[in-house]
Write a structure and sequence with these properties.
This protein is an alpha/beta fold. It has 10 helices and 12 strands. Helix 1 crosses helix 10 (261-268) and helix 4 packs across helix 9 (240-255). The two termini are 33 Å apart. Bound molecules: NADP nicotinamide-adenine-dinucleotide phosphate (NAP). Residues 65, 104, 107, 129-134, 153-155, 158, 189-192, 194, 216-218, 239, 242-243, 246 line the site of NADP nicotinamide-adenine-dinucleotide phosphate.
Length: 270
């Protein structure tokens, strides 16, 4: 988009613990843009009303849990990648209508490179979880060369319908152990790890030797799974890299200029 939006908001429920306003406002200040990024809690059942307000406010912003899929229906136009994923995490207004995009895919790809280097290839990926974030991981992995994904999730039907949408690269497997067999990269796309007493998404002793571990969950000071995997010698990173990268890509969509990523990262340091 070219002109500045009227508001810049994150919509979700609840959004009180989101880190996005912290790093987006640092990027806005650094760029000298006269806007504040605000988190807007949208209670269940109020998404349509919120979407109408976004249109009349000429707003731009991000969408987070639990509305990324539901927000598709509020958009007059979608980017090809938002259509592929089936979820919107970034939007803006054009001629009074909402346009939906998805930067989780690019954010995931950037985060993998940041965490593990640009020269690694991922012939076999184990993906745990089958929600919107898993769809973004699959949309990223299908852009990689020669990657095969084994998907496992606790609700087999949901995993199977996601795998059908990405059938060229993805198959479901009956157990988490089948997913892990021979994996170079193990990705957690469940919320396990958000709460301090959550079980680990995959027991550390079951990880294939030398497999890299990427946890989409974000927790200050790393998730327990990432800490334990590192302790056992696996390269491992949590979802903060993806969160910042998807936010930086969203910033580029809204303003046509890249944000200062150092400013974004500095704002997150304790
Ligand atoms: P979602 O659509 O609700 O899907 C969650 C998936 O995890 C589903 O397959 C669900 O299985 C499974 N799951 C939920 N609770 C579980 C449990 N206790 N044990 C095992 N499996 C469980 O959520 P999402 O949007 O995909 O997000 C998943 C996670 O990724 C969230 O923690 C989110 O914060 C994170 N995320 C991070 C970023 C980032 O930038 N770092 C971006 C997007 C998402 P069922 O189908 O059986 O319910």
């Amino acid at each position: 988009m070219t002109s500045l939006p009227g508001r810049l908001v994150l919509i979700g429920h609840p959004v009180s613990h989101s880190l996005s306003p912290t790093f987006q406002n640092a990027a806005l200040r650094h760029a000298g843009l006269p806007l504040t990024y605000e988190a807007l809690d949208v209670p269940p059942g109020r998404l349509e009303r919120a979407a109408a307000w976004l249109r009349t406010s000429n707003a731009a912003g991000n969408v987070t849990l639990p509305y990324k899929e539901a927000f598709l229906a509020s958009c007059a136009r979608l980017s090809p990648i938002a259509e592929r994923v089936g979820a919107v995490n970034t939007f803006w207004c054009e001629d009074g209508a909402l346009v939906g995009d998805n930067t989780d895919v690019g954010g995931f790809e950037e985060a993998i490179v940041r965490a593990f280097g640009s020269d690694r290839r991922w012939p076999r990926v184990a993906l745990i979880g089958a929600g919107g974030a898993a769809a973004a991981v699959l949309a990223g992995a299908e852009r990689w060369f020669g990657t095969e994904v084994r998907l496992w999730s606790r609700t087999a039907g949901r995993a199977e319908s996601l795998a059908r949408r990405f059938a060229r690269i993805c198959t479901t497997v009956p157990t988490v152990h089948d997913a892990l067999e021979g994996a170079d990269l193990v990705v957690n796309a469940t919320p396990l790890g958000l709460a301090p007493d959550d079980a680990l998404p995959v027991p550390i002793q079951d990880l294939p030797p030398r497999a890299a571990v990427y946890d989409l969950v974000v927790r200050r000071g790393d998730t327990a799974w990432v800490r334990a995997a590192r302790g056992a010698g696996h390269p491992a990173a949590d979802g903060l890299g993806m969160l910042v990268a998807q936010g930086a890509l969203s910033f580029e969509r809204w303003f046509g200029q890249a944000p200062d990523r150092d400013a974004m990262w500095s704002a997150l340091r304790p």
